[in-house]
Amino acid sequence: MIISFSCQNFRSIREKVTLDLQASPDKHQREYFVVDVPKPRLKVLKTAMIYGANASGKTNILLALDAMRRIVTSASQNKDAAIPVQPHALERDKASVFEIAFVEDGILYEFHLELSERCIISETLYHYPKRSRALIFDRQLKDASSFEYSYKWTGAEFSTQQMDAMNLLLQNRTVISGVGSFQYSGPINVAREWFAKRLMPIVNPKTELFLHCMDNYLLRKEPNITRFFIDQLQKADLNIEEIRAYQHKIHLGQIPEPARSNMIKQGTVSLNATVVNAEVIVRDLTIKHNTQGQSFELSYNDESMGTQRYFGIIGLLLELLASKIILIDEIESSLHNDLLIHFISSFLKNSAGGQLIFTSHNTALLNEKEIIRRDCVWITDRKEDGSTELTRVSAYPVRKEHALDSLFKKGLIGGKPNLGPIEIEDIPNGQTL
Length: 433
Fold this sequence. Notes:
With about 425 residues, the protein is an alpha+beta fold. The chain is about 25% helix and about 30% strand. Helix 9 (about 305-320) runs parallel beside helix 10 (about 335-350). The longest helix is centred in the C-terminal third of the chain and has 17 residues, at about 305-320. The termini are far apart.
């Protein structure tokens, strides 16, 4: 689980912002929202929801987390490859900084990463194996022209050969990614596994989740998994009684246009690099509906956008139940408000260690007591220089009896755009209204 995440000099984030997931003393829905971490003693929230005006930086908070994940796990062997970090437009000559504290296997880890597009500048990992803070490794850039580094391997548990290999690590690769190149089971690998397998890639409104659900779940043909999808679809009031997943190979040239382009775009077909003559693997899902006693079947591609979206959301729910960390930008995309509340409630009441961090414009959620605590709601604002400011709602004098949606709409807790008048003085091209 993430305890806190900080970022500085990334996209619209200029000065340091921190997303803190430690719970306040608030007892509201504590049994569903809060997870106790014994070493050191912490109370961690299972969710964080970020609101704000357009262009205030909501998405960039999630993109910063996702960028850190990709950088930390990158296994590139090209020493000249640029590190995929995007500094603030007015701070391009300065380093970007990421800091994260997370818990894995009951142990707290703290990771600091400072870097430019050219190289890693500093990288440090601590953990708390016995309640007190202990250094695992520290890497500092000594000479930017030759990319010479100094290292401390206090708790890395490396062999001499492994240490020699790590001392020759490329300037654009992290230490955490480097341990994936040899057999190693020490504490740095725990961190690598957390970034690679616990923190999931960002999901946005255009993310196609079909292949994820098919390849990771339904094509395994496990009856309990298929039953889970059907149960969740039925609870969503979608009149679905049966689903059938299958795949087969076909030559790409046999698929006519525009069907070929649509299938590739929607994720129901993917190129198989091991197959010659441009063969592809086609995945499809047949969905059986029952309405007023009459049954009919539709292909996944013929279903509504809302049904397709919720089908993918079910796969994310399974990840949350497996204690994964899910980042969703604009969580309400294509979903009815009641269905969205149902999904968030299902996660909160059934997941023991997963975390859901999302952005939203759906202010109706702010008044739903069963999925809201004041300490889990965050607001982004655009400062005078255009950069992002991040504030927790509980930092405002908000009482339990206050309706958060009303406060947000009135701009009393930030996040409200400052719009101009609706009158149009100069209509282009002589158009009349």
